[in-house]
Amino acid sequence: MKKFLVGLSAVILVLLAFQTGVSADKKEKKDYMVMFDGPAKKGILQAFGVNDGNVLRDFELLDVYQIELTDKQAKGLKNHPQIKFVEENAKAKAYGQTVPYGIPQVEGTTAQDNGFSGDGVKVAVLDTGIDRSHSDLNVAGGFSAYDSGANADPYNDGSGHGTHVAGTIAAQDNNLGVLGVTPNVELYAVKVLDNQGSGTYADIAEGIEWAIQNNMDVINMSLGGSSSSSILKEYSDLAYDSGILVVAAAGNEGSFLWFDTVGYPAAYDSVVAVAAVDENNQRGSFSSVGSQVELSAPGVQILSTVPGNGYDSYNGTSMASPHVAGVAAQVWQAKPGLSNVQLRQLLRDTAEPLGAQREYGYGLVQSMDAINQ
């Protein structure tokens, strides 16, 4: 009999412990937001056992309280006719910025981690303009080769092409959107293509002239044509002779038999012609080939900024060229005593070889290797 009573006592203790645990769980308070739809707010809360100590916040513009409630209190309030909403106070977090694969591929992030983000270097983006209102871009100034209409505004980018190029160079390190190669460069919007993405060699020449007159360090031209121009060549040469590093997209004509398909101005000796590779360092099938190809950079499915605070992925040597322009700005910040000719040679010498010269040039541009050379 004594053994039975001892066993029964043990069972009762276990049951009591279980009930205590269940009771404690039921009384555990959680963080809720409650919105009223009627008067007597304090009275309703008190009726459900909510005291002032459980009210964490009383909003002003809407009849909303942040309150600590048990599950039972929350359920009761949800069923009350003068309560509009009862919601658990959900957690939120900042949307972190994405680092497009091309930025670390050219060692841009490593260079940033070592303090080289393009500070003090001026980069002119000769393109369709740049959406200056984009939260991920900091545009220092600009110029338009057009005299009137929407195209006269360098910050009106109806095409989106120039804004995308600008993001690869200089999207801000701000926990938003994407990260560019050189977030701290002085970025300039030089509109030489209209809102449909077209322009003339005269427009490009005027943009180069503006860049020379305004002491730019790097010119990026993610554009080109199939025919040469003596005057465009003269302006490209003049920019290079003035100490500017001139970078341009090689073109998207792919390969055709043994012919060189690099466009202009990239094909000029004074311009660094950039081919496109993917995340595996394979040449993009669209990327132009030829003896003029000098460097390679990521240009396949490149995520970057577009007008209206948006982001999108584009393909093209247009996307590869700004990677090189950004790397050049990082290296020039690290080695400000270099001339543009010396900088160009350094980028060649430290590029990662990828294959045939007419497809890849000297190879994949590498920022940190150039800085450490």
TrEMBL record:
GO-annotated molecular function: metal ion binding; serine-type endopeptidase activity
Record keywords, A-Z: Calcium, Hydrolase, Metal-binding, Protease, Secreted, Serine protease, Signal
Names of required cofactors: Ca(2+)
GO annotation, cellular component aspect: extracellular space
List of catalytic residues: 127, 161, 318
A Pfam short name: Peptidase_S8
Signal peptide range: 1-23
A Gene Ontology BP annotation from the UniProt entry: proteolysis
Domain Peptidase S8/S53: 118-363
Cellular compartment(s): Secreted
Family: Belongs to the peptidase S8 family.
Name assigned to this protein: S8 family peptidase
